[in-house]
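Input record (one chain):
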Amino acid sequence: MQEFILDIPTDAVTLAEAVAWAQEKLSQKRPHFIASVNPEICLSARRNSTLQAALLAADLRIPDGIGIVLASRLCGGQIRERVTGIDLMEELVALAAAEGKKVFLFGAAEGVATAAASKLKERYPSLLVAGTAHGYLPQAADEEIACDIAASGADMVFVALGSPRQELFVAKHGAASGAKLLMVVGGSFDVLSGRLKRAPLLYQRLGLEWFYRLIQQPKRILRVRIMPAFLAAVTQQRLFTSGRRQC
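The corresponding structure, as predicted from the sequence alone:
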């Protein structure tokens, strides 16, 4: 089931359902794009038609953020569980290790993707890392990166370039990468590498992971401040059309 949050379709899935969906898609030939939907991205997509088109082209759009859960509740929707990018990535890495699939990590600062891959290998010794590449490259290099990924034989690609570049990379170059699954993961490499500490479980369960990250990175205050504007926009656009739930 999909709900439309500020015209962006969002799948009302649990973490377990998202993993099952991904496992099924690994057996298919064409690439599949997993996007994350959060308040910041929804508002950005209203101003950026290219980003909006990339999100519409995704095959699965996870409800990544407490703001999306709140928006769904405001509209009488069914989204009750956050499916964070880092949680889904970790589950997919575990799946890759169990099924002998190759993963490629692309993005973040120089050395971070490599460090994240090393940490994941420590956790899952059987994991096959096809390669890594940092994200501090000009956008003109994206086509070459896609060719490198294809040459590596990666089945899954995790892209941490920040929005909207990560979504645009997958939408434009996903097919050329040859991978079955491509997922945008924002700042997940920083956490997985140990560069940043993830919020304690209590913060996660209370939907306050954003607050813990704000303590570590005060400059994120500008991103947090968009929440009131997001919820106001959702409230104004609360309606139902053509059997689809829209906020």
